[in-house]
Design brief:
This protein is an alpha/beta fold. It folds into 2 domains: 194 residues, Alpha/Beta hydrolase fold, catalytic domain (Rossmann fold, 3-Layer(aba) Sandwich); 50 residues, no CATH class. The chain has 8 helices and 7 strands. It has a 7-stranded mixed beta sheet with strand order 1-3-2-4-5-6-7. Helix 3 links the parallel strand 4 and strand 5. Helix 2 packs across helix 3. It is globular.
Length: 265
């Protein structure tokens, strides 16, 4: 049972968007490139009382705006995993990441497993398997080319892209995240032991069926694929369904771990 008295222990880069002091399981959410923890605020608010959703806050944005973005994606994962292992005993944990967040979640899962504290499940969304990550040069393009790429993928609301001041404010972070994604190369490692779910839009140009199938190679715990109607940001239309899926996975994990029910909700 989660103890309310210790519920505000150090969480490092993770943000407790909507507290669930009696949670029996938790879901850790990893944002897409250019995204921040606040993207997941509606998800956390929709979570039931017994599952808590926490969101990773990458360096260089929101309340970590002044912090330097790591040189590569492995550095991002190292910092996040260190915060989690410093957190002490924890509830059964499901990791979820979309787009760049998918490989961040995967790399964090590897580090948690190596520390003897593997997640109970990994759910990845909108990204090819690590070994099939696409090379790219978007991060080397001009500001105009970068904005055009954001329009193409619907990664940012159009009203923001039409505001020159806002674009100049967040474009450095976008460019840095493209660099992290486009230069990422997985390091050969042991397979995960937890099950993996792979979610993606059926019209997403950033991932094809065979690239989604490649996720089967990262785990010995089984892998399930599920497609949704939509493009790269299918999550906007299917948020409720994905939150329900993550909640079900987390609850199943808490039941398997025999986490006791709290005396009062």
């Amino acid at each position: 049972m989660s103890d309310p008295a210790t519920h505000d222990r150090h969480l490092g880069a993770f943000r407790r968007l909507t507290p669930r002091p009696y949670a029996r399981a938790r879901v850790l959410l990893f944002p897409h490139g250019g995204g921040s923890a606040s993207y997941y605020r509606p998800w956390a608010a929709a979570a039931p009382w017994d599952v808590e959703f926490l969101a990773a806050q990458y360096a260089g944005r929101e309340d970590r705006y002044s912090e330097q973005i790591p040189a590569d994606l492995h550095g991002v994962a190292e910092g996040l995993a260190a915060d989690l292992t410093a957190d002490g005993p924890r509830l059964p944990t499901v990791l979820f990441g979309h787009s760049m967040g998918a490989v961040v979640a995967y790399e964090v899962a590897l580090r948690l497993a190596a520390a003897g504290e593997p997640p109970t499940r990994l759910v990845v969304s909108g990204h090819p398997a690590p070994a099939l990550t696409r090379r790219g040069r978007v991060h080397l393009g001009t500001d105009e080319e970068l904005v055009e790429e954001l329009r193409r993928t619907d990664a940012t609301h159009r009203d923001i892209l039409d505001n020159a001041a806002l674009v100049q404010a967040f474009l450095p972070v976008i460019r840095a995240d493209y660099r992290l994604s486009e230069t990422y190369r997985p390091v050969p490692s042991l397979a995960l032991c937890c099950p993996v779910d792979v979610l993606y839009g059926d019209a997403d140009p950033e991932i094809h069926d065979w690239e989604a199938e490649g996720w089967r190679e990262v785990t010995d715990g089984g892998c399930a694929l599920r497609t949704f109607e939509g493009g790269h940001f299918y999550l906007e239309e299917h948020r409720e369904t994905v939150v329900e899926l993550l909640t079900a996975r987390a609850r199943a994990a808490s039941e398997e771990a025999a986490v006791p029910w709290p005396s009062a909700p």
